[in-house]
Every structure is written in C-alpha cells, then in structure tokens.
C-alpha cells in the first residue's frame, strides 16, 4: 500500500542534510497515521489508548523544532536574504502545532483524517518553500568551492 506521505519527486531538494530531515518528518507523519488508524475506534476517554498518539504528536513537534533550528543555523551560515520571513514561517508552524497539541491533550480537539491532511499540507508547503533556501546554499557552496580551488591552484 502507498504511504500516506510519499516523500520524493519535487520534494527532494538536493541538499542531503535538509532532505534527510524532511524524509524523517514524512516518516513520523506516516507513523502518526498508522497509530491513528489503530486507535480511532477506541474510546477517547481511556487515556491509555491515547498515549501512543500523544507520544507521536510530541515526537513530530520535537523533530520539527530541531529541523527548523538546524535550517535557521544553515540560513545564518549562508546569509540567506529571506531569513526573517523563513524563520517567521517556522515560528508560525510551531505555534500552530503547539496549540493543536495542547487542544488535543485537553480533549478539545480530536485527531482525525482532516487534521492529518492539514499536517501533511503544512509539511509539503514547508518543504517546497525550502527549495529557494537549498538553491541559495548550493550556489554559495559552489562559489566557495570554486574560489578555494582557484586559490589553491597553480
Ligand atoms: Fe525544511
């Protein structure tokens, strides 16, 4: 069966460190879907049934946070011109995600296919937004490589 989130194609941006983290995020979302499918019919009132979902949501939040921190470090390293906007987009995704996790924990929010699809859309949008960043990093690194080659030549 096809995965819910199939990472590949245009989502592969060409910078291994970023791609690998994106691939892992897609994997965690797929895990969240399969946990959802195995707990969906169990009563929400029984907290034990919700534990795997809560753990997986926390894992997704933690992975996202780490991924964003690492991208922000990368942006600073290459003086990315759109740093402010991109970092703001990260903050907004994290705030929304945190808000959602809290509502879920307080039983004010269910986890359903609609939520999972929204999470997937956020992730895809984020990954596509990273294309410009990755292109910038690659061009800076290529220019640096060319410079050190010519410096070292002769
Ligand atoms: Fe990213």
Brief overview:
This protein has one domain: Hemerythrin-like (Four Helix Bundle (Hemerythrin (Met), subunit A)), CATH 1.20.120.50.
Topology:
Elements: H1 16-39, H2 47-77, H3 83-105, H4 113-152
The structure holds fe (ii) ion (FE2).
Fe (ii) ion (FE2) binds next to helix 1, helix 2 and helix 4.
Please give a structural write-up:
This protein is an all-alpha fold and 154 residues long. It has one domain: Four Helix Bundle (Hemerythrin (Met), subunit A) (Up-down Bundle), CATH 1.20.120.50. It is built from four helices and no strands. The longest helix is centred in the last third of the chain and has 40 residues, at 113-152. The mean pLDDT is 90. Fe (ii) ion (FE2) is lined by residues 18, 22, 67, 71, 126-127, 130.
Label the overall shape: elongated
Identify the CATH class: Mainly Alpha
Relative strand content: under 5%
Radius of gyration of CA atoms, rounded to a whole number: 19 Å
The CATH fourth-level homologous superfamily: Hemerythrin-like
Average predicted confidence as pLDDT: 90
Mind describing the biggest β-sheet? none
How many discrete structural domains?
1
Report how far the terminal alpha carbons are from each other. Answer: 57 Å
Please count the helical segments.
4
Low-confidence stretches: none
CATH topology: Four Helix Bundle (Hemerythrin (Met), subunit A)
Structural class: mainly alpha
Shape-level CATH architecture: Up-down Bundle
Bound small-molecule species: fe (ii) ion
Percent in helix: over 70%
